[in-house]
Design goal:
Length: 406
Amino acid sequence: MSPSPRVRSTLLAFALLAFGSALGCQRTSRSPAPAPKTVTPTPAATPSAAIPAPPGAPASVSGQSAPDCVGPFTESGPATEVKVDGRTFRQQGATLTLTEPDQSREIVFGVLANLMEPTGENLFNDQRYLKFFADAKAQAILVAGDTGDSREETMGTVEPLAKSGLPVLVIPGNHEGRTAFRSALDALHAKYPNVVDMTRIRLVRFGAASVVSLPGYYDARFLNQGPAGCQYFKEDVSALAPIIAAATQPVVLLSHAEPYGHGHEAIDAFKDGNAGDWNLTAFLRTHPVPFGVAANILEAGGRATDLDSNLIREGAFVPRLYLNPGEADSTAWNLNDGTTSHGMVATLTIHGSLAAYQTFRVAQLSMAEEAEAGKLAPTAAPPPVTVTVTAIAPKKAPHGGSNPKK
C-alpha cells in the first residue's frame, strides 16, 4: 500500500517553499545499522557565544498559544501514581516523575517522528523499529510530532508504540489539529497509561535525564490544519526557562521544530537554506539544555549536530547533541546526504553528562514483505449505504375514481 496522495503532495509542497520549513526527508534503503559500539567519550565543540540573528533567519513570532497546544506548566495540584512498565511515576500538575530511578545515570530513548499514517508498510516497519529499540534496551520512546492529520491517523500510528509497554512521550508537530490530537491521546491513554500527552505534561523526570516538551510548530504557514493546528510562539520558548529550572539535569528538549542552524550539515537544512527557529537557537545557547530531539525537516534526518551545526558521528558521546531522527514513514524521501529513506528511527543514549545517538534505517520492502504489510493495513470502513426512497403516486381508476383495494 502506498502512502496517500494527500501526504505526498503535502510533503512536496513543503519541500518547494523557501524559508520557514520544509517537510521531509528520506534516504536509500540499506541494511540496518549495527548496534552502537562502546566509545571513549569525546568532547564536542563548544557552542560559540550568542550572536545576533543572521539576516533573514526564520524565527517564532510573538503571540499567545492555545492552551490545548502548549499546556501551562505547574507543579501544583493533586498527585496521582501511574504504573508504567513495572515502574511507578508520580503525576502532579504538568510533571511526571519516576519515583525510584535507578542509580546507573544512564538511559536509552527510542526516538522517532513523522509517522504520518498507519499504512500497512508503516505498521510492518513499526515491528522493526520496536525490535531495534528493544535490542538497544530503550527505557522510553520519544515521538517528535507528525503522528497524522486526523484523530484516526494519530491513534493508528501511536498505538503500536503504546503496545510496547514503555513510556511513550508524544508531541504534535505541524500536521496535527489540536482537538484531534488531544482526543486521540486521551483515548490512547485511557487504554494504555504509558502514553503521555506532552501538550499536558511538560516535564518528565526519569532520574538519569529529564524530558521537556515544546509542542507544535512555530510557522503558521506550514500548519496543515491552519488555525486549528498547534502553533507555538516566541513567548513559549521563553517559558521553557522555569520548566528547565524544575528539571533534573541533563535535559532533553522534545520539539518538532529544529533550532536554526547554518550550512548543509545542519539538522534543519533543506535545499533553500535552513528552516529552524532562531529564537530556539538563542534560547538553547543561554540555558542548560544540552540535548534535543527535533524532526520537521525530513531531508536533514538521520544526523545530529551541536549548536554550531558541527556534525557528530554516530556512537560518539559528547556534551551537546541535537538529533533529527528523520521520517519513520515509509514514503521514499531524498536526504541531504544523497541517499533515500524508506523509514528511519534512532536511539539517544545518555550517560551522565554525555549523550550519543545511533540511527536505524529500513530497506524498501520486498514484494514478499509488501504482501505481509498488506495484511496489517487497517480495514477501511465500508462506504455508507445510500437509500433513495421514491414516492409512488397511487394509480387512478377509470373515470378518475380511487383505486379500489384488493
